[in-house]
Write a structure and sequence with these properties.
- The complex is a heterodimer.
- By secondary structure, chain A is an alpha+beta fold.
- Helices cover about 60% and strands about 10% of the residues of chain A.
- Chain A has a ten-stranded antiparallel barrel with strand order 1-2-3-4-5-6-7-8-9-10, surrounded by five helices.
- Chain A starts with a strand and ends in an 11-residue tail after the last helix.
- Chain B is about 55% helix and about 15% strand.
- The chains are: A alpha+beta, B alpha+beta.
- The interface between A and B is large, with 86 and 77 residues.
- The structure holds zinc ion.
- Zinc ion (ZN) binds next to helix 7 and helix 9 of chain B.
Chain lengths: ~350, ~350
């Protein structure tokens, strides 16, 4: 690549304007018992996407509330049918296997949809999935890694990112992913290490085992545990979540940098992410504390703060002009959805 | 709305994107007689057609779709307003503006959450229960009993005579109790050392009693009162209510709070589960109230339930693992409440 032009991702959203959108969304969702939430999701996404730009060219989100609503209706109906069916002894087993084989199709559909409804610089993203490759990376490999006591799970994670990135297009330009497995092991081992250490400390210091035994007993016998026990349980949970929380952010930071660094777009364009794990931990944990202490009212602020940090640490190394991407017919073009949904906030991990 | 109404002939500056291309073109839009024309940087005509405005969000751009897949975006909102009229959904954007009025929206949200918690959930639970087919509930019972037997229960070690005596009490109670909703009441004896002296009901009408319970509380009246209590759990569908309650909470949190982020969602869900446990206390007093009436109707002394709770209260947990009553100081309150009700209703065994 000769002299790439470096573009930082520009995010122009702010907590003031997002707060209004967020709280009005919640009010309307409550009043409609959750139905409006489909439209709320579209409004939130459009706000985030339209306030994100590269080289002055904005992203945009084109799904409609009705599309999301119908999708959710189908999922909820399916969930209800599944939970009824799975209570019946033999048919339940069949249903669980059925779901296993349905999952790759659902994942592909989700990525296809998200790709098709996302645009940048006036051009839509696209996705060319394959059922059996999705089945391999999302079902088979994780299942096989069971037999290695999860030690091989980073291979499965790498395969998933490879599948997702390699299946995405921007217009007709294909994304490409090429990486060794090493960064995936680094992210995995650091996160596991943190989690084991923090969890162990919490159990030792706060006597978590005893609380759980008592709660389990109360639940099994259908009796109400007393207030003191519930309070201890509540405090224990909050502290445990706070202690284990950094593991997730550490993992996501390493993974994000690795995946962006290994991704390129046809035409010689490359991507970089230089998120600092400890900075991400700080933002993530302080966000969580702020959200809890403000009874959720600082959530929009936290969301915007995370978005701003991530976009500040995301770059495109453009090989020449960004004007020359072309698309096929509108219909056959989709969205990079999940890869981009990453930029959307808390969901720091790349595709699924 | 616009401060300076501009001459409709004035072109609005912005950027255009052609169909199937990422090219960003410095362009201007002119509208005359409902006909929009997009001009390129050299003044060349890019497209002529009908202009449709998309609703604007926050400080985002004004977006205009023109025929043939052309798009135009601009930050000159007021000029566009003059040209095309204020967008349809400006109303929502106006309410979303950062303004003291939002305090009211926040308060309304808190009130809404409270109302949903207080009433909305009840409606969802009632709908869920109404839609539940009886075979499904029976399947839950079968599944649970199989799981209990596999995990921690052994066959009862009580002798057959003793079991027959308790079963006779059970039959008296089943006669006096309201119709079970999902199939007959059935009593199962099990030796479950880990549960200590215990009895519990499954939603479909199966009631499990541990050997330790029969040994420690051999009194007929106590057995009758506790069985009445468990049958009340069945007729009032308490377990199903709790199941649907937690499902509804899960669904509502997922829908309304939507993208609250993983941390907040975990905390909301755990909080919801804990509050559901607190809710089960209401079910316990309801089952107490119905249970003593059933026991009295079947000819047993309803006050035995109060005796039972006081004896529980007097017991210490001992060394044989955690038992629910050792952490249950409310037993004394329940005993007092039962006595109050018996006096009030003039219930007695006759
Ligand atoms: Zn009970």
């Amino acid at each position: 690549m000769q002299n790439p032009t470096i573009h930082k991702v520009e995010f122009s959203g702010n907590a003031r304007s997002y707060f209004g959108i967020w709280i009005v969304n919640i009010l309307l969702s409550i009043v409609t018992l959750g139905i409006y939430s489909a439209w709320a999701k579209v409004r939130t996404r459009r706000y985030m996407y339209q306030h994100t730009a590269i080289d002055g060219r904005r992203f945009d989100y084109h799904a409609t509330g009705m599309q999301i609503f119908i999708g959710r209706l189908i999922v909820v109906a399916g969930f209800i049918v599944f939970s009824i069916v799975s209570a019946i002894p033999i048919i339940g087993l069949v249903a669980i296997f059925g779901l296993l084989f349905l999952a790759p199709w659902l994942i592909n559909r989700g990525m296809l949809f998200n790709a098709r409804v996302t645009s940048w610089s006036g051009l839509r993203f696209g996705f060319d999935g394959s059922y059996w490759r999705a089945f391999r990376v999302y079902i088979l490999y994780p299942f096989l890694s069971l037999f290695t006591l999860y030690l091989a799970i980073p291979f499965a994670i790498r395969a998933q990112h490879s599948y997702s990135v390699n299946s995405h297009r921007f217009g007709t330009a294909k994304f490409h992913f090429e990486s060794s497995v090493k960064p995936f092991y680094v992210a995995f081992l650091l996160a596991i290490g943190w989690m084991a250490l923090a969890g162990l400390l919490m159990f030792l210091v706060l006597g978590g085992g005893e609380i759980f035994a008592e709660i389990a007993m109360a639940e099994r016998t259908g009796r109400a545990p007393d207030d003191a026990l519930m309070l201890r349980m509540g405090i224990f949970y909050v502290l445990l979540i706070l202690a284990v929380l950094p593991a997730g952010f550490i993992y996501q930071a390493f993974l994000r940098n690795a995946v962006y660094g290994a991704t390129s777009l046809a035409g010689g364009h490359e991507f970089r992410s230089d998120v600092k794990p400890m900075q991400l931990v700080w933002i993530g944990v302080s966000n969580a504390v702020a959200i809890i202490c403000s009874l959720g009212m600082l959530l929009p602020w936290a969301h915007i703060r995370m978005m701003r940090y991530l976009s500040d640490h995301t770059f495109i190394l453009a090989n020449g002009s960004l004007d020359d991407f072309t698309g096929q017919q509108e219909e056959s073009v989709g969205a990079i959805g999940d890869a981009y949904a990453d930029l959307e906030g808390f969901d720091v991990g790349l595709p699924v | 709305m616009s401060g300076f109404p501009s001459d409709p002939g004035t072109p609005v500056p912005g950027h255009a994107y052609g169909p199937g291309s990422s090219r960003r073109i410095a362009a201007s839009l002119r509208v005359a007689d409902d006909q929009a024309t997009l001009f390129g940087p050299q003044g060349e005509r890019l497209v002529v057609g009908h202009a449709r405005r998309r609703d604007r969000i926050g400080a985002g751009p004004s977006l205009i779709d023109i025929d043939d897949g052309w798009r135009f975006e601009t930050d000159a909102h007021e000029m566009i307003d003059t040209l095309l009229g204020h967008e349809q959904k400006a109303g929502l954007m106006e309410y979303e503006r950062f303004h003291p009025r939002l305090v009211l929206v926040v308060l309304a949200c808190f009130a809404g959450v409270f109302l949903i918690w207080r009433f909305g959930l009840g409606v969802l639970v009632a709908i869920g229960i109404a839609l539940t087919p009886a075979p499904f509930v029976s399947a839950i019972d079968r599944g649970n009993i199989a799981a209990i037997d596999r995990v921690f229960a052994q066959p009862s070690r009580l002798d057959a005579d003793r079991r027959a005596e308790v079963r006779a009490i059970f039959d008296d109670l089943a006669q006096a109790a309201p119709e079970p909703p999902y199939g007959d009441y059935q009593l199962h004896f099990r030796h479950i050392p880990r549960l200590g002296a215990n009895a519990f009901a499954l939603p479909g009408g199966n009631i499990v009693m541990t050997d330790a319970f029969v040994r420690q509380f051999g009194d007929d009246d106590i057995i009758a009162a506790v069985l009445g209590h468990e049958m009340a759990h069945v007729t009032e569908k308490h377990s199903l209510q709790q199941l649907y309650r937690s499902l509804s909470i899960y669904l509502l949190i997922a829908l309304i709070a939507g993208d609250v982020g993983p941390v907040a969602e975990d905390i909301l869900l755990e909080g919801g589960a804990l509050m559901s446990l607190a809710y089960s206390r209401e079910h316990e007093s309801e089952a107490d109230a119905i249970g003593i009436r059933v026991a009295a109707r079947a000819g047993y002394d309803p006050a035995a339930l109060a005796v039972f709770f006081r004896r529980l209260d007097g017991m210490t947990g001992g060394g044989d693992g955690p038992q629910w009553y050792s952490t249950h100081p409310a037993s004394r309150d329940r005993a007092a409440e039962i006595r109050r009700q018996i006096e009030e209703l003039g219930l007695s065994a006759d």
